[in-house]
Amino acid sequence: MRKRASIKDVAREAGVSVTTTSYVLNRKSNVRISDETARKVREAANKLNYVPRMSARTMINQKSQLIGAIIPQTGSSHRLMFDNPFYGEFLSAVECEVRERGYHLLVSGTGPNQDYSSIAQMRDLDGIIILGTYPCEYLDELKRTGIPVVLVDAYIRDHYFHTVSIDDRHGGYLATNYLIEKGHRKIAFIAEKLRGYGIHEQRFLGYRDALAEAGIDFDERSVYAADVSYYSSFQLAQVFKEKSQGETGVFVAADIMALGFINGLRAQGWSIPEDLSVVGFDDVFLASMCLPEITTVHQDIAEKGRQAADIVISAVENGAKRDIILPLYIVERDSVRDITVREE
To answer: What is the 3-state secondary structure (H, E, C) of 132-200?
Structure first.
């Protein structure tokens, strides 16, 4: 096996000191290096196929240049659910921002009893982004490490953590109110099993808010639960068909669930929106690539990822505490029927 080139090998090939070589390869802007010297160093590095050793950089800078993205698995499956395009859009934006800032991204799921701080310390992470967690003792242990942490979509109020979020309760209100404005009075709600401090609980509260504002009685029989997955929601369609209380509309708390639910209903012979109007949440790209295209609550998933990455890297580099709330709005497509309009 060919020996891996070291920074000393590059310095020897370029005919300059190791210190000068390090300045050039690490792009030290506060050190004056002639263009000719920089050129010789880069040419030597290319010739020798030099790749920096991250472990060496960690020892010198006390930084690993590694950011962790942790996704706790809270449903019935402990696998990362990458069939949900929300994760792909979010992580793609995080990775791009992290890479452009000179860092690398480590992605990890966690089971229900896995300590976040152990992942952070074993991998020597500089900063951590956690997507969709709940209050737990592991967050307290993570605080003791001193590692900067950004919580995304987490209803945890603690001055230590930076946050990036949306107003999920308002989003639930927007979705339900949209159906009400289209003439629907019997409206179902579909989400994962509700838990305190969760985004789906907040969207449920927004659903309740809109019903109450319109003078519509809440019926707990119109609330259905499934995992946040296509397959689980597809199966739920059969249960809904059997137990429906005559609803004409439904607010589904995630687009991937809405997509599975709609296709499940179509497999049962239903037509959307003629037999049931559906509003989703997230506006993932698949929402506009299905039949019918799904009316949904739009959140900027990519911007959420970019902001999370920017905040955690800024915190690693001694930036100030930041909390970001991104806007929401309805995107009208084809999955809702306006029943206030009398058909000829």
So the answer is: CCCCCHHHHHHHCCCCCEEEECCCCCCCCCEEEEECHHHHHHHHHHHHHHCCCCCEEEEECCCCCCCHH
